[in-house]
Amino acid sequence: MSDTQKVYTPSTPLPPARTGLLTAFEPGTRTLEKGFQIAPQFRPIPVDIVFEKDVAVQLRDGVTIYVDVFRPAGSEKVPVIVAWSPYGKGQGTSVSVMGVFGLVGLNNNVVSGLAKFEAPDPAYWCANGYAICNPDIRGCVDSEGNSVLWDRQDGRDCHDLINWLAEQSWCSGNVGMSGTSYLAVSQWFTAAEQPAALKAINPWEGVSDVYRDLVLRGGMPDLAFAGLLQNGSFFGKNNKEDILAEAARYPLMNELWENKIPEFERINVPAYIVASYSNTLHTAGTFRGWRRIASHDKWLRIHNTQEWPDYYDEANVEDLRRFFDRYLKGQANDWESTPRVRYAVHDFEGGDQVNVAAEEFPPQGAVSTRFYLDGRSRMLTSDAPAADVAVSYGVANNPNAVSFITRFDQVTELVGYPKAHLWVEAKGADDMDLFVLVQKLDAYGTPLQQFTTPNHSAMIHDLTDHGATILRYKGSDGRLRVSARHLDKALSSVDVPAHSFDRVEKLAPGEIVDVEIDLLPLGIKFYPGEQLRFVISSRNLMGTMMPGIAEYTGANSGEHVIHTGGEHASYLQLPVKLS
């Protein structure tokens, strides 16, 4: 069983940088009066709020967790929104959270300081007739038990909390969930448990498969962010799951990793899902969740920035309230007329389109189109070259990459799922770690990029010249360890290949194999004369997803050979939508 496969390591207490003004364990109820301001840099609250602190909730296995509840003063029963994550419920005023806001260029006064990190702000929601529940989940801060990292255990525990909340005297019986990143992932797991009181979810960017999105993307043990998450977020008094040790012990898909994938087919509640193309941690998982959940009433909005500025944007908060007003309060507000999909199109030149309405994603009119690699001209062509031409690079050389370019002669949009189908060979090695990237170039061949946050300072330039991908969008990337090339036929589609990761198939000398590599979904516009460059490399083209963490280096040696044309017609498949 997966629980017996779990590895644990001792937790440590919450450090000072993660400690906020409300962190101390102080059970009790008090009223925060209108105008209350927890600290000068935060927004005052606009209404009286009842604050129930460190309320004990017992889970089905006897473990007790502690939650904070913020609710409007008065006797009216209200729905409640749950923010489930390991990030301490009192961290909203911590140096760490304030520092993150500063990094991306958000002023701390966009929130009241009562919100958990990446969570809905009680100041806004209580003023609009909702309660907010901030739990310290199993094993975190003062809560009992051993903590786990993105697991079906999260779903079972949150199911129990939701049942408890629905029975409280102040609650209308309707519960929703909202939040970004970890708070989004926990919603997949919780909704799959189908608690009766859960009426709507709002996953706002998050992984949906810990193996494929976080720990071993493309079959490569790129563990830097997993280590940051494990060692920088799960603070408590007992033990925490050691996902780094698990990845070393279980490098192939097994029951442990399968239990870190939600049962999408059991998710049937109304869902308002928010995604971006640019978050190399969250993008694939958010779109996967959108595709696979069983909910009939589901909406997708794809934005063009970074999750935190997008989540706290005033117009977006109001949009989310319309969704919750419909499904948690039962208001007939015509939410159902909202387009099922609203997507963004980047142009990297200040003319992005947002909220483009569609009934599906990819939108109607986006046609999967093959661009064949021509090794002789280094162009991407509409027809497969007749001659079989190989191009190669030594992984220890400079350059350790090859690229191919096409120029557009009319306005062209790419909106949907790209993939690469490559014929490859290794010389002097029995495996290959391949990294691929689709870039936009201007008419003169200059790569175009785009900051995703309001902060465009010199420091952000330094941090993002190589790495910190969530802060600066450079294009759609993918990666694959060639020995992990076996496809899962049940999960794969024509547009989105999915690998089984349950076997290792090394390469024999002289063996040429075909591989399919999924790249992150994209929405990019090209104007006449502009170009697209497709890069294949043995090096990590994007660098790290966050600043300050170690970069993964591909496990490569020898020479990589990319075959093109003839019997080995490698191609890049792109979703072309002509304007």
Automatic annotation (TrEMBL):
Transmembrane segments: none annotated. It comes from the Bacteria. Residues 321-573 form the Xaa-Pro dipeptidyl-peptidase C-terminal domain. Keywords: Hydrolase. It holds the Pfam family PepX_C. GO terms for molecular function: dipeptidyl-peptidase activity. NCBIfam families: CocE_NonD. This is Hydrolase. The lineage of its organism: Bacteria, Pseudomonadati, Pseudomonadota, Gammaproteobacteria, Pseudomonadales.
